[in-house]
Amino acid sequence: MRLVILADSSSALPAIALLHRLHHTDHEIALVVEVDPAPRRSWTGWLRELFAPRILSSHFGADHPLATELRVEEVEEESITDAAEAAHAPHMSVSALTGDQVMLELGTQRADAIIALLGVEAPPELASLAGEGLLQVCVGRAPQRVRADALRWSLLAGERPTASVLHLPAWDDLGDGARIISSRPVQRDHADYRSFESLVEYESVEAVLSALERLENPSDHPSTDDLAAQRPPGRTLHRMATPLVEVVDAWLGEHRTPKHS
Amino acid sequence: MATTMAAGSSADPKNKHTQTPFMALLRERAALAAAWLHAASAGPSAAAAAGDASAAAPRHGASGFYSKPLRPPTGWSGADAGSTAMLVTALLRYSAFANDTASGAEALRQADWLLHAQDDEGGLPMGELTPLSPLPIPIQLPGMPAPQPPNPRIGARGVWSTSLAIQALLAANDRTHAAKYLEGAAKAGRWLVRHLNTAARQWTRGTEHMNASPAYYTEVCAALLALFQRTQIAGLREAATQVLDTLADQRMPEGGFRNWGADPRDTAASHHVALTISGFDACGRALGGNAGERYSRIAAECAASLAADQACFGRLSGGYDEFIEPATDFFCPSGAARMSRVWLGYWQRNRDMYLLNAAAQAAADTVAAQEMSAIDADCNGALPGSQPITGPHARMRYPTDATAEFVLMAIEMHEVLTRLLEAGPCDW
Fold it and tell me: What is the pLDDT of residues A168-197, one digit of tens each?
């Protein structure tokens, strides 16, 4: 499939891992779009990049399964730009996914699917720019949980932490027909609880690959009601109030103790 | 602060590992607010003593508000039956929450005053009871007679204060099982039924303004229905449903009420909006089934609108118009506290995370509005009527109702957060 990948700083590591994986498959990466609110052409952007921690070398500890995997495979790319170059994919940086120029650039790629690995919900109108539509990676089982505190919302809802891929078909520029087509729960025995978010990030890469396989071979993966999207009308769970953040963090804090200690 | 509290619960070592920082803050702030309520309970005697230091402290209710500019020299207003009733409910709840016997005793003393203030028909006085003085403020000048404490059994009776007294007396009855409180509540309920204007299907006398019942009198109906569930007194349920139907019919097509507050010409404070929603919700649940469905639906729709508004603008506005659109730029702490309680109720019934988040946000905003570092130390622990205090709702005042509402909100929020913390994430 011909793919366009949208990523931002909050999803840099999964984006690098996904580019690395896709490079070794039959998929063609048409374009990598990095959404950066402070573009590098500004002096603050240069400063930020100069002093930013290196993604693989220092930012993520040894307990991050994606970082560990990339180190084992001797991947040396430290940024989305480097990873795109290594995968021989064109790269562009935009400050926001809005505006006619961005839409025109994405539309001219004639991609089969657009993969959104973003910390925010991608505009649903992007679905009409690719043949198979938009694949939105989100945390938990509800599509509105792609914003800040997504993992906390998922835990508060009593859900098992899950990386899901929401599929918006090309005809659906309002997002009404969105469905979760791939869902990868965090394995409880995979590791201890210190790195909930890293586990979800790890599973998000697997979920995207699984979703691509499902799109390529839909007959092998009949849809089930279990993966239906839950979208309460008009409600987006943006920021979690501080009292609830503290409760969920207390849950995580209790579980941060290694299981076998 | 006139009264110091034991408030040992915040330092309770057993809570050390079972609460989050915000829960600890809620405990601490609830203790401060309860201490302020103790001071408000003693307020009128301080006001009287300022006029005549030798006068023995009269039997009195709680102050309606604290405001140095409006009620010099002490700052405490005269006794107010409605505020006293709110104080009784809050202190009884706090007493059970923090195992504080002093609060329970003070609440029961004020409940006894409510019984004392009831006239023979069962009504409670409306508004502030001012000392009988030739001057507008209770001070004594040389050669003039000393201010005399007011007689609460004389004067106009109010629908709102009587309904609040029902809830307070029912709470006192729950605590003590003393028949006198239930009898007092029943007497007040009969007064409300007797003074209902059956032609207009609402209360037109004993109301604050306009000779009509504002939308927040749904809370009066809720008190009648709560009393009916205990006593099965004839006429209570019928009176409540008559008024509820009248108020529900006044709902605008846009979803809100033009008469949220006392005066339909003014922008309603969110305090009155929250009371309206809370009353409809309580009545819908009390009536149940098809009878309560209409009221529950109104409450749910308005509560969802306010939650969406809060999510959009960051915090609740201090006032709303009939479109449930924010109409002011100040903050109403008592409205946010009441809405937090309403949303918590929805969360407990249907586990709607969206409303739980709204409740938590409103609670955090209300805690931030509590006065903590005022130059006038007597303000500390209280909630202002508006934030900033120059806002139009209870301008320049610290109403007792607002602080009582805050105590109730802090306790309910603390209980919900405790249950959440104990339950933990799902067992997967």
Answer: 888 866 666 777 888 888 765 544 445 567
Q: Which long-range contacts (CB under 8 A, 24 or more apart) does A217-221 make?
A: A221/A181
Nearest to A250 among B354, B421, B428 (CB): B421
Closest by CA to B268, choosing from B208, B311, B225, B353, is B208
**Which residue is closest to A234 within chain B, CA to CA?**
B308
For B4-48, the DSSP string reads: ----GGGG-GGGTTS--HHHHHHHHHHHHHHHHHHHHHHHHHHHH
Collect all residues of chain B within an 8 Å Cβ-Cβ radius of residue A248: 425
Q: CA-nearest residue of chain A to B356?
A: A244
Please report, for residues A178, B19, B117, the alpha-carbon distance to residue B153 in angstroms, rounded to integers and kept in the order given. 66, 46, 5
Q: Which residue matches tokens 């009620």?
A: B71
Q: Nearest CA of chain A to the CA of B19: how many Å?
A: 8
Is the pLDDT score of A46 beyond 70? no
Option in A240, A247, A249 nearest B417 (CB): A247
Encoded tokens for A76: 């040396």
Contact A243 B360 (CB under 8 A): yes
pLDDT in tens, A166-175: 888 888 666 6
The average confidence (pLDDT) of chain B is 88
pLDDT for the residue A234: 47
B353 in contact with A at a CB cutoff of 8 Å?
yes
Say whether B353 and A160 touch across the interface (CB within 8 A). Answer: no
Nearest to B426 among A160, A240, A243 (CB): A160
Residue B299 vs residue A137, higher pLDDT? B299
Model pLDDT, residue A232: 45
Residue B125 has pLDDT above 80, yes or no: yes
Question: Does A189 contact B at CB distance below 8 Å?
Answer: no
Conformation bin of residue B127: beta by default, left when phi > 0, alpha when psi is -120 to 50: left
Per-residue pLDDT tens digits for A111-170: 999 999 887 778 888 888 899 899 988 877 665 555 557 778 878 887 777 888 888 888
Q: Best interface-test mutation with A: which of B414, B415, B416, B420 has the largest number of A CBs within 10 A?
A: B420
pLDDT at position B401 is 96
Angstrom distance (rounded) from CA B222 to CA A187: 49
DSSP state letters, B87-98: HHHHHHHHHHHH
Q: Which amino acid is at B379?
A: C
A160 shares contact with chain B (CB less than 8 Å): yes
Rounded to whole angstroms, the Cα distance separating B124 from B166 reads: 10
Tokens of A245: 């953040």
CB atoms within 10 A of CB B108: 19
- CA B292/CA B313 separation, integer angstroms: 32
Nearest-10 Cα torsion for A236, A241, A247, A248: 30
Decide if A243 and B363 are in contact by the 8 Å CB cutoff.
yes
Is residue B324 a contact partner of residue B304, using CB atoms and an 8 Å limit?
Answer: no
Tell me what pLDDT residue A182 has: 84
Query: Which residues are CB-neighbours of B359 under 8 A, at least 6 positions away?
Result: B339, B340, B341, B343, B344, B347, B413, B416
Q: Residue A42 and residue B427: Cα distance in Å, rounded?
A: 48
Sign of CA dihedral A177, A178, A179, A182: positive
CB contact under 8 Å between B424 and A254, yes or no, is: yes
User: With 70 as the cut, is the pLDDT of residue B55 above it?
Assistant: no
